[in-house]
Prior knowledge:
Elements: H1 2-8, E1 11-19, E2 22-31, H2 34-44, E3 51-58
Antiparallel strand pairs: 1-2, 1-3
Amino acid sequence: MIKQEKMMGSVIVLVTEGKHESVDYVKVMLFDNRTLALEFCKVNNRGPKKNWVYAEIIDAGTRIELGQADYN
């Protein structure tokens, strides 16, 4: 319960990384505020290239189909 309560006040960023069209790695980052989370996403997103990284803010409990981000 304590971990859930802490997460409720955090901003969640899902980071996916891959090569070409496959997702090879996934990690979750927690931030204290939305401004820090947005800056993290801005600095870390790169693609579409051979090796790509896509970070996005998500809501807790969101179900996401993993795949390469659409950068268009």
